[in-house]
Design goal:
elongated; TnpC-like
Length: 96
Protein backbone atom coordinates (compact mmCIF):
# COMPACT_ATOMS: atom_id res chain seq x y z
CA UNK A 1 0.00 0.00 0.00
CA UNK A 2 1.50 3.33 -1.01
CA UNK A 3 1.56 6.33 1.35
CA UNK A 4 -1.22 8.15 -0.51
CA UNK A 5 -3.51 5.14 -0.18
CA UNK A 6 -2.90 5.13 3.57
CA UNK A 7 -3.69 8.83 3.77
CA UNK A 8 -6.93 8.31 1.87
CA UNK A 9 -7.92 5.37 4.07
CA UNK A 10 -7.23 7.33 7.27
CA UNK A 11 -9.10 10.41 5.99
CA UNK A 12 -12.11 8.29 5.00
CA UNK A 13 -12.15 6.43 8.32
CA UNK A 14 -12.03 9.70 10.28
CA UNK A 15 -14.83 11.16 8.18
CA UNK A 16 -16.96 8.02 8.51
CA UNK A 17 -16.50 7.86 12.28
CA UNK A 18 -17.38 11.52 12.62
CA UNK A 19 -20.50 11.17 10.46
CA UNK A 20 -21.63 8.19 12.52
CA UNK A 21 -21.17 10.11 15.76
CA UNK A 22 -18.39 7.83 16.95
CA UNK A 23 -15.29 9.18 18.68
CA UNK A 24 -12.16 9.45 16.58
CA UNK A 25 -9.48 7.48 18.38
CA UNK A 26 -6.40 5.60 17.25
CA UNK A 27 -8.08 2.34 18.29
CA UNK A 28 -11.20 3.14 16.22
CA UNK A 29 -9.14 4.22 13.20
CA UNK A 30 -7.01 1.08 13.41
CA UNK A 31 -10.12 -1.09 13.56
CA UNK A 32 -11.74 0.73 10.64
CA UNK A 33 -8.66 0.67 8.39
CA UNK A 34 -6.95 -2.58 9.25
CA UNK A 35 -3.73 -0.67 9.94
CA UNK A 36 -2.05 -1.19 13.27
CA UNK A 37 -2.23 1.50 15.93
CA UNK A 38 1.55 1.69 16.00
CA UNK A 39 1.70 2.23 12.22
CA UNK A 40 -0.78 5.08 12.47
CA UNK A 41 0.85 6.60 15.53
CA UNK A 42 4.47 6.33 14.31
CA UNK A 43 3.74 7.87 10.90
CA UNK A 44 3.68 11.61 11.56
CA UNK A 45 1.43 12.31 8.58
CA UNK A 46 -1.16 9.70 9.56
CA UNK A 47 -1.01 10.68 13.23
CA UNK A 48 -1.46 14.33 12.24
CA UNK A 49 -4.56 13.51 10.20
CA UNK A 50 -6.13 11.64 13.13
CA UNK A 51 -5.24 14.39 15.60
CA UNK A 52 -6.58 17.05 13.23
CA UNK A 53 -9.88 15.20 12.95
CA UNK A 54 -10.01 14.69 16.73
CA UNK A 55 -9.53 18.44 17.20
CA UNK A 56 -12.15 19.20 14.53
CA UNK A 57 -14.53 16.82 16.25
CA UNK A 58 -14.24 18.88 19.42
CA UNK A 59 -15.04 22.07 17.51
CA UNK A 60 -17.25 20.51 14.85
CA UNK A 61 -19.16 22.93 12.64
CA UNK A 62 -20.71 22.50 9.20
CA UNK A 63 -17.66 24.21 7.67
CA UNK A 64 -15.35 21.74 9.41
CA UNK A 65 -17.23 18.83 7.89
CA UNK A 66 -17.00 20.43 4.46
CA UNK A 67 -13.29 21.11 4.95
CA UNK A 68 -12.73 17.49 5.93
CA UNK A 69 -14.53 16.26 2.83
CA UNK A 70 -12.50 18.63 0.65
CA UNK A 71 -9.28 17.31 2.19
CA UNK A 72 -10.38 13.74 1.49
CA UNK A 73 -11.28 14.58 -2.10
CA UNK A 74 -8.03 16.49 -2.61
CA UNK A 75 -6.03 13.47 -1.43
CA UNK A 76 -8.02 11.19 -3.77
CA UNK A 77 -7.39 13.50 -6.74
CA UNK A 78 -3.68 13.59 -5.94
CA UNK A 79 -3.54 9.80 -5.85
CA UNK A 80 -5.41 9.53 -9.14
CA UNK A 81 -3.15 12.10 -10.79
CA UNK A 82 -0.08 10.13 -9.72
CA UNK A 83 -1.55 6.94 -11.13
CA UNK A 84 -2.35 8.66 -14.43
CA UNK A 85 1.24 9.96 -14.64
CA UNK A 86 2.53 6.47 -13.90
CA UNK A 87 0.33 4.95 -16.62
CA UNK A 88 1.41 7.62 -19.09
CA UNK A 89 5.06 6.82 -18.34
CA UNK A 90 4.38 3.12 -18.89
CA UNK A 91 2.70 3.86 -22.22
CA UNK A 92 5.65 6.01 -23.34
CA UNK A 93 8.08 3.21 -22.49
CA UNK A 94 5.98 0.64 -24.34
CA UNK A 95 5.82 2.81 -27.46
CA UNK A 96 9.62 3.03 -27.68
Amino acid sequence: MNPHDRINIIERACTDLSRNGQPITFVAIAAATGLSRSTIYRNTTLRGIVEEHKHAEATDTPMTAISDEIATLRAAVTTLAERVRSHEDQLRRLRR
